[in-house]
């Protein structure tokens, strides 16, 4: 089939269980492949790495009205959809409560809480012989963690799953369509979640507690405070970035270990390899497969001219299997060295929730290791989510002979 249809085939749900042969086809077709809808698809590691640091590749939502109702105030994008300098300003403000640069102290301080939540979830399923790892463990763990980090009351935590489901379903790459404009239901969800979080933060103003919303609301430096709109967008983004990536990372991780019992046994013998194993999972089965950008100028990329205004899809998952960067790239190796993967992207838009996702995945998979050796996949491949950009199983049914 022609390379000009690769994006349509990659995003076709029929190929969700295994898009990797299509990524290999993409790399063979060239660093840059123009699609029939005018999108430029890129899948080689070194070109992807360069473009992720190129300011001419814009993440910004330019000239788009997100309002479903013209009488409403325009919905402001999060800093994920902005370029520098505004992106840098908002990201800096959002990261400030986490601690010094590159040292997210608030996230690190939650390790004990993450361990506790993990054990509570496992305790609730230990008497069962069959579970759905997604519904019973991989999904509730990160949403509970992120709610505790934000300071959401426990009785409100189930509502966040409904909001998150709705927003993730609306965020996907669809060939042949303009960059998605949120529909009325999505806008309503964004408004409800953002309004709830802002009101919760306002309740903490002058009454600080040990959570992220409280830190935002009680920032002592007036020049470093988020506005109401900025706080809403940042809190919603943290929920998605710190939640959805982790669900996929944990689920893809467990699935991969069950498919490679020799590596599962190795991790049981060498538990200190778990941080390295999570980095390899981020390369081998990444939670984020691609992102869309817009060319701000005519660009020559690997001998191809990309016209100004063109849509460019950066296929991170393809770059992660590029043999020009990774020896034997289709082999899962928990001890892989110099693993400079693109699992969380790179450059100024490196995933905001990456530090939290790493800690949660390491904790979750370490806790699951003793039981996975006595576990059988009930369906392989499992059913996947519709979303091609945030790829992961929707369910992962497991038969467990003995819970350790």
Quaternary state of this entry equals single chain
- Helix percent reads 40-55%
- Overall form: globular
CATH fold assignment = Cytochrome p450
Radius of gyration: 21 Å
Q: Find the count of extended strands (DSSP E, 2+ residues).
A: 10
Portion of residues in beta strands equals 5-15%
Taking pLDDT < 50 over at least 5 consecutive residues as the criterion, the unreliable ranges are 63-75
CATH top level class name: Mainly Alpha
Q: How far is the N terminus from the C terminus?
A: 48 Å
CATH evolutionary superfamily? Cytochrome P450
Summarize the helix and strand pattern as letters: HHEEHEHHHEHHHHHHHHEEEEHHEE
Strand order of the largest sheet: 1-2-8-5-3
What structural class do you assign from the helix and strand content?
Answer: alpha+beta
Structure explained in plain terms:
Strand 1 (32-34) and strand 2 form a beta hairpin. It contains 16 helices and ten strands. The chain has a five-stranded mixed beta sheet with strand order 1-2-8-5-3, sandwiched between helices. Strands 4-10-9 form a three-stranded antiparallel beta sheet. The protein has a two-stranded antiparallel sheet with strand order 6-7. Helices cover 46% and strands 8% of the residues. By secondary structure, the chain is α+β, with helices and mostly antiparallel strands.
Looking at this protein, list some descriptive labels.
globular; 5-stranded mixed β-sheet; 404 residues; alpha+beta; 3-stranded antiparallel β-sheet; Cytochrome p450
């Amino acid at each position: 089939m022609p390379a000009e249809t690769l994006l349509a085939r990659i995003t076709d749900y029929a190929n969700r269980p295994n898009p990797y042969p299509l990524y290999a086809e993409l790399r063979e077709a060239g660093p840059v492949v123009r699609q029939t809808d005018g999108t430029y698809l890129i899948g080689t590691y070194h070109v992807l790495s360069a473009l992720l640091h190129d300011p001419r590749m814009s993440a910004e939502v330019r000239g788009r009205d997100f309002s479903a109702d013209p009488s409403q105030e325009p919905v402001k994008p999060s800093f994920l959809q902005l370029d520098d300098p505004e992106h840098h300003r908002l990201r800096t403000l959002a990261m400030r409560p986490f601690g010094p640069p590159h040292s997210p102290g608030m996230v690190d301080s939650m390790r004990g809480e993450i361990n506790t939540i993990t054990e509570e979830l496992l305790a609730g399923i230990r008497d069962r012989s069959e579970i759905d790892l997604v519904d019973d463990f991989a999904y509730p763990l990160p949403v509970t963690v992120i709610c505790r980090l934000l300071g959401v009351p426990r009785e409100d935590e189930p509502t966040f799953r409904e909001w998150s489901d709705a927003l993730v379903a609306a965020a996907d790459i669809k060939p042949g369509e303009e960059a998605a404009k949120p529909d009325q239901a999505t806008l309503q969800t964004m408004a409800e979640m953002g309004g709830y979080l802002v009101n919760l933060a306002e309740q903490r103003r002058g009454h600080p507690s040990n959570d992220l919303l409280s830190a935002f609301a009680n920032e002592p430096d007036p020049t470093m405070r988020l506005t109401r709109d900025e706080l809403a967008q940042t809190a919603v983004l943290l929920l998605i970035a710190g939640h959805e990536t982790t669900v996929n990372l944990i689920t893809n991780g467990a699935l991969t270990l069950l498919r490679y019992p020799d590596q599962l046994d190795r991790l049981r013998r060498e538990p200190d390899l778990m941080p390295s194993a999570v980095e390899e999972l981020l390369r081998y089965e990444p939670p984020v497969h691609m992102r869309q950008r817009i060319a701000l100028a005519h660009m020559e990329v690997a001998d191809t001219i990309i016209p100004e205004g063109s849509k460019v899809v950066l296929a991170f998952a393809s770059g992660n299997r590029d043999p020009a960067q990774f020896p034997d790239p289709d082999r899962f190796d928990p001890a892989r060295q110099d693993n400079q993967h693109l699992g969380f992207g790179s450059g100024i838009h490196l995933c905001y929730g990456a530090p939290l996702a790493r800690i949660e995945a390491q904790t979750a998979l370490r806790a699951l290791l003793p039981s996975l050796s006595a576990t059988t996949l009930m369906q392989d491949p499992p059913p996947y989510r519709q979303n091609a950009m945030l790829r992961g199983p929707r369910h992962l049914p497991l038969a467990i002979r003995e819970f350790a």
